[in-house]
Amino acid sequence: MIAVVDYGMGNLRSVQKAFEIQGFDARITNEKNIIRDASHLVLPGVGAIADAMTNLNKSGLAGVLLSEIQKGKPFLGICLGMQMLFEKSHEDGVHECLGLIEGEVVPFDVDLWVPHIGWNSLDSKDTAILDGSGKEIYVYFVHSYHGVCKNEEDIAATTRYGYDFTSAVSRGNVFGVQFHPEKSGDAGLEILNKFGGIKP
Questions:
Q1: How distant is the alpha carbon of residue 70 from its chain centre?
Q2: Rounded to whole angstroms, how far apart are CA atoms 175 and 169?
Q3: Active site residue 79
Q4: pTM of the full predicted structure?
Q5: Angle at the Cα of 18 (from 164 to 27), degrees rounded to 5?
Q6: Which of 9, 13, 82, 136 could form a disulfide with 176 if both were Cys (CB 3.0 to 4.6 A apart)?
Q7: Where are the alpha helices (DSSP H) in 3-79?
Q8: Whole-angstrom Cα distance, residue 28 to residue 15?
Q9: Is the pLDDT of residue 45 over 90?
């Protein structure tokens, strides 16, 4: 069972539905016991990171997620959920995040329209959820901030928007995507299918 973590923010139902289309049992939940019983964890997110981290911490869900991740459970952060994987974010101040990926989240510094909205391509490495064959993969983005990894080996994919930014991360059983796979058609569904198929 895949637990889609409900901490009061994010497009939870669309993520759940995308997994269900692939034949997975995906449940939206904020119940700690269900999260502990799940085989896979997904942390979606839309909105401000300060509110997201406050909600995660006050509810006690942050501690539960970190504990389950340490046990080796596959984890996927989507959009804001990926940004929360970093050590800190510079969105409207400085905010401590989950610290699973070394680095920080910064605003775009480009002479282009921000937020970065729409379809864009991935230059990805071969990981458990991404195809590194070099074929063009287009996915859907909506964001004004992006993560900067301290360690190059944590970068699973980059995308060009004025400059190359990190659009996916991977470290062990932890994965993050800045784009919305649930809004990215067949390419996004394939990514979710691969994640759901990872053996814990």
A1: 17
A2: 6
A3: yes
A4: 0.97
A5: 115
A6: 82
A7: 12-21, 32-37, 49-59, 61-70
A8: 9
A9: no
